[in-house]
Each structure stands twice: as C-alpha cells, then as structure tokens.
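Suppose you are handed a protein chain with no further information: no name, no annotation, nothing but its sequence. What can you learn? This example shows the usual starting point.
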Amino acid sequence: MCLLIAVQKRQFLDVRRLITATLLYGFVAVVGVGILVGLLATTSDKLASSLGLDPRLVAALLSAALLALLFLGAWLVHPRVMRRLAPETERLEALATRLPRELRALPTPSQVFTRVAEELADSLGLDCCALYGRWGDRFVPTFTRGPAVPFAFAADGPLPSALAGDLQPVRVAGLRPSALERALGPQDATVLEALDARVVLPLSHQETLAGFLILGEKRSGDVFSSADLHLLASVGQIAALQLERFDLEAVAASQRTLSAELTKKRPCFMSYSSHDEEFARKLHDDLESRGISCWFAPETLRVGDRWQPAIDHGLVEAERVLVVLSEHSLASPWVAYEVKAALERSEAAPTSPIVFPIRIDDAIVHATDGWPVLLRERVHVGDFRSWRDERAYAAALERLVRDLTVPAERSGS
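A reasonable first move is to predict its three-dimensional structure. Written in structure tokens, the prediction is:
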C-alpha cells in the first residue's frame, strides 16, 4: 500500500523520490498504527469514563486526531527530505523566481536565449543541452553544452510541428511513448536519441515557436518529475514574456548570429595531400582570419603526436570535414582514410560531420571507382581550380565561408 501511495504521489521512474516517498509513508504508517494501538488500549476507556461518553466514540475520535497529526508531520517533513534528495528541483524553483529580473536586464534577444539555456543546464546539472532557433525554413543550433552535435531541423518537420501545437515542455524518454515520440519521424527520433534527450522545452515569441531546448539527462540520474515540467513551463513563459520586448526581425537576427558564432567555434577538419600544402595553407590562413577554426595538421599536431590517434580525435571533434580534391589527394591513403571515416560517421548518425569537398583540378571528374566516385555522386563539389587567380579565388572563398558558417541540412552527406 505504501508503495502504491508513493507511485501515485511521486514519479514512478524517479527512483530516489520513489524510495524516499515509500520509506516516509511506510514509516508514518508503522509509527501511526503503533501509537494508535498503544493509546487506544490505555487511554480511550479512561477518557470515556471521565467524560461520560461511549468508549467506541472516544476511540474513533482519538484515532482521527492522531492520524491527522501524523499526516501533518509527514507533510511538514517531506519537503525538507526531498530538498536534500532532489536539489535540482529546488534550484529550478529558485531559477524561476530570479529569472525575470535577470532577463529584464539583458539588452538583446541573443542574451535572453543564451542565459535561459545556460541557467537551465546549470540548475538541472545536465550532461547535454542544445538550444535551437529559427533560421529561415529551419531550426538550427545556437547553443550547445556537452556532447551535443549541431543538426538542422526542418521548420515544417515532425518535431517543430509537434511542439508548435502546444508550446508546453514534453517528456521524451519514458515508460510509455509520448505523443511527441509517436509523431516524430525516424530521423528526428535518431537525433533526439543521439542527444540523449529527456525533455524538449519550446520557446515562443508572439505565440509562435521561436526555438526549443533539448534537455539531456541529469547527472544525478533522476528523471524529470511533474514538478520539474511545471517549473520548466514557467521558465518558458518567462522567456516568452521577455522576448516580447523585441520584434520578430530582431529575434530572428539574434538566432542567426548565435548559430553562425557556434558554427565558427567548432573546428573544420582539413583533409588534403601534402603535395597540395601551398593551397591548403593559404586556405587555412584565410579561413582562420574569418573566424573559422580549422584542424590543420602542420598547425594542430604537436611534436610527438601519433598520426592516426590525432587524426581520429580531430575527426571526432570536427563538425565539417573540408576535403581538398586533386590528383594527389585521390591517390593519398591518408585522405582516403579521413574521407571514408567521415562518410561512415555520416551514415551511422545524422548528427555526424558534413563533408565539404573542393577541387583544385579535374581529377575528381575522371575518377572511375572508390570513394572519389561515391563523394562525387553524393555531394556538390566546390570549384577552386583557378585558385592562383586572386579574383577567382576570392569569389570561391567567400562562397565557401558562407556555406561553412550557415548550418546545412544533413541529408546523408
């Protein structure tokens, strides 16, 4: 019976709350029955005689009074116990109290979005948190924490469409599939699984979906309780109220800025043949000067680093893999290894790096087998064949910078 009471009053999957509630209500029941039996045996008859009342009536009144006192004690003790065992909920309550004041002091939508994401990640102790904002016909990452890897969701896709209909936080992982999980397509479901998502919190602006937060697992291992979801809804409403200070264009522009800055922070792995190092170094320097961080072997590798582990680490950390295609790189076993690794990761999970091939000669056009053919057939190849011509190089570079800094759909690149 105590377990059933705990399941009803607490979340079934929240192990610490379940155990605590079960023990607490069990203790109340055992102590209450013991006190009740002891007092009734010794007190009810004497009290009935002194008051001139029916002993059964006195026993019933004593039972009711003692039970009321016991449950009042449990009601007073329970919040203090839970604050000890569920500190995330207490921190979330404190956040919901102070957040309006903090957000009012922020002058731009970018700062509002980022502050909400950072505060929730800190308060809940999340291993993974990703904030997505609207950019044209897509929702793109504007803030990430932990192992989250950027991925663009179509604005009319299953996840944004499901969120736009309610604008309430939704639990993703649970004992039974939620309405959101049932509405998701296989690609969106794979992305949420890769991000270890537990809850998705929509963020609205003028009653439309402006973005959403994907919240991962708490480091404590606790699930998101009903109280957590209620508090998250309050945080979402607070953010929406503060965003009302800005017009639609200001909100959209802030999200584009955040996404571009995030993309620049994630390294772009450069794969090329050493025979083409003159071009590769020139391109590396120009990309770095435009704020795009590059994994470039001559600059990144330290003395004593082993080649393959260093390359593998660079590929894991990179969001983009920039491949310089030439007759030399098509014959390079290292380039083949890097491209195949990137393509395999793209096949395994849609959150893997996008491959950006650029050519400096026509070798890729004449390739007849192997990974060059696969790459040519699946991905658009940028043209840097005239890279020694400054005007042609500048035009090709600007297009590449634009493509590298605008999050792209991952359609199986």
